[in-house]
Amino acid sequence: MAKEEKSFEEAITKLETIVKELESGNCTLDESIEKYTEGMKLAKICGDKLNNATEKINKILKENGTLEDFEVPEE
Length: 75
Description:
By secondary structure, the protein is mainly α. It has a domain at 28-63. It is built from two helices and no strands. The protein has helices at 8-24, 29-63. α1 runs antiparallel to α2 (29-63). The N and C termini lie far apart (39 Å).
């Protein structure tokens, strides 16, 4: 059975939880490594979803005659 993909909101919420847990300093080294690994996977999911959303917005803008591409601001 395929694993159900998390929504962007679910992934970002879980990622925020992991960051708080790691920052607390209450995890063992092994737990920290596990959480870090999960966090990296979630960060990739979030990044991929944001890239897909940007592509969809750009497609809509181009279809409607808008010349400028939409860009996600860098922080």
